[in-house]
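Appendix B. Raw example, untouched.
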Amino acid sequence: MELRNPVKDKLLRGESSIGSWCLSGQPLAAEALAGAGFEWISTDIEHFPIDVSAAADCFRAAHGMGAVPFARLPACDPIWIKRFLDAGAMGVIIPLIRSADDARRVVEGSRFPSMGRRPWGGGRVMFLYGRDAYLAGANDAICVLVQIETPEAVEDLDAICAVEGIDGCFVGPNDLSLAMGLPLPGTPHAGREQLVRSLAERIRAAGKIAGTVSASPAEAAQRIEEGYQMVSILGDLIYVRTGAAGAVAEMAGRGIM
């Protein structure tokens, strides 16, 4: 079986791709998001209590419904990287990158020799794709993204983008706003919007994939107009909370609650 990543292929052609987040760590939720038509589902292991086994089930569910499974990992750590790639993630998003040296460590952990130093032990991917097919195709098929969410990363962005083996940068406006003393997204702020736009321009000018988050389809469309290609729209728990809150509010408005 040839190892392919249709989302990465699409992004490298300069096209856009819309995904969402599996925050719950529940495979049924990942399956529902993929079934809704999102092209990629990123399981958020950085901020939610999701272990490797649960993540593997989410990857399996997303893949089974035709979406590409991604994982946002807890840290730039080769152990985290290899465990979730071995569990079946076809892309990783690495948080809190601050420098080109950090980016080089990501490449070392996520690419097999000679490009990197990722070890081979089999894992779930050996049974899913076969040893030879996976080893032959993983360096090309795995999508490796680093998050730009610190002032240091903004300053060193050109050097980060120049690191061989990094496919793109995923801008995190929430942590970037916190770190720079700006209002969080949701509160209008011209400086933050200009920064987010400029980062897309710089990333694309370097020949890399530009990704970020959005809180609505309208915002996702705006980000794509600004040059972002890989854009998420909310996540499973947010969809549940929003729908539930709307139902409760409607019942309260009817004087029932």
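End of appendix B.
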